[in-house]
């Protein structure tokens, strides 16, 4: 993976319907554009979530990343690593701040140092310790601690089966 240590900022921007202008970029980095991350609760909400993009300033350029391409976010000291298949970005952000900003875009906190994109989750297996093992489509596995076990329910809208999370 390619890690960029010179990353400066990351901002969620609304999906684009036309060409990006300088004003759009400036607004996404502290202008008057909405920074709340709130998603509309109207029909088409899922479409917006799937096309939402993240603006990442790195190495003197601004990269626009489809949030659906982000596999996971992991804390690394005072930084987080935004992981994609093709390239990762190291950002000076806290995992808690990103968890709050990205939760409306399908990201689920599964560990004190990890968020996963729910669209990449393929399997959850219980462990005898009470924790869970979560496997992504990429084959990568994460431990889900008991503290974040309740967040697993956010991985799907409909659950079938008996006693999925016994002990809840």
Question: What is the secondary structure topology, with strand pairs?
Answer:
Layout: E1 9-13, H1 22-28, H2 45-51, E2 53-58, E3 61-66, E4 70-76, E5 79-84, E6 89-91, H3 95-102, E7 107-111, E8 114-117, E9 121-126, E10 132-136, E11 141-144
Antiparallel strand pairs: 1-2, 2-3, 4-5, 4-8, 5-6, 7-8, 9-10, 10-11
DSSP helical segment count: 3
Inertia-based shape:
globular
Number of domains: 1
Order of helices and strands: EHHEEEEEHEEEEE
- Helical content stands at 10-25%
Query: How much is the average pLDDT?
Result: 76
By CATH, the architecture is named: Beta Barrel
* Poorly predicted runs: 1-8, 12-49
Beta-strand fraction estimate: 25-35%
Quote the CATH topology. Answer: OB fold (Dihydrolipoamide Acetyltransferase, E2P)
Please tell me how large the radius of gyration is.
Answer: 17 Å
Give the termini separation.
Answer: 37 Å
Q: How many strand units?
A: 11
Overall structural class, as computed from helix and strand content, comes to mainly beta
Spatial arrangement of strands, main beta sheet: 6-5-4-8-7
State the CATH class.
Answer: Mainly Beta
Biggest β-sheet description: 5 strands, antiparallel
